[in-house]
Amino acid sequence: MKIYSNKPNLVNVKILEEALKITKNNVKNVAVGIEFVPWYKIKSLNKKIRNINKVTDVLSFPMLSGKKFDFLSQCDDERDPYSRELYLGDIVICNHRAKKQAKTFGHSIEREICFLTLHGLLHLLGFDHIEKNDEVEMMEIAEKILKKFGITRGE
Predict the structure, then answer these.
(1) How far apart are CA 102 and CA 44, in angstroms?
(2) Nearest by Cα to 34 from 117, 114, 95, 102
(3) Which of 5, 108, 119, 126 could pair with 34 as two cysteines, CB 3.0-4.6 Å apart?
């Protein structure tokens, strides 16, 4: 997986690659953009895109449409014709909100950033949390992956 980010040192690529495996979307040459922004920028994006005038922790902007499991294997025609890269979309994370939530939940900023990037990637893969059962599914996948890498709550 290739990450395009303004702060690549904050992104744990192995966690995102694990999400691709667990969701059966483990295809080659996949890329995602991850941008870390201040509160006022994510608030502006949230207002512009979702018509919600509030700061949020993470926003996802998928380039592909599909539903959850194993849809990337059917997206070969969406690959860049020269690089053969499959660009999933962009994830925008609010630095301020991540720090605040880490403190509130009593865990490290690393754990919060890992959770938010993973949450954003799951949205790019067609997951949502509109319905309660879908939210539970997303949380279970995220917690399973984070636990596998020893990134737990309250650390």
Answers:
(1) 23
(2) 117
(3) 5
The tens digit of pLDDT for each residue in 49-58 reads 999 999 999 9
**Chain centroid to CA 105: how far?**
19
The structural domains of the chain, ordered by start, are 2-148 (3.40.390.30)
Indicate the pTM of the whole model.
0.92
Q: Which two tokens stand for residue 24?
A: 């059966």
Phi, psi of 112 (to 5 degrees): -65, -45
DSSP per-residue string spanning 101-122: HHHHHTS-HHHHHHHHHHHHHH
Strands of the 30-37 sheet, one edge to the other: 2-5, 30-37, 86-94, 58-62
Alpha-helical segments (H) within the chain? 13-22, 39-50, 95-105, 109-124, 132-148
**Count of CA atoms in the C-beta half-sphere (13 A) of 36:** 18
- Contact assessment for residue 34 and residue 60, using Cβ atoms and an 8 Å cutoff: no
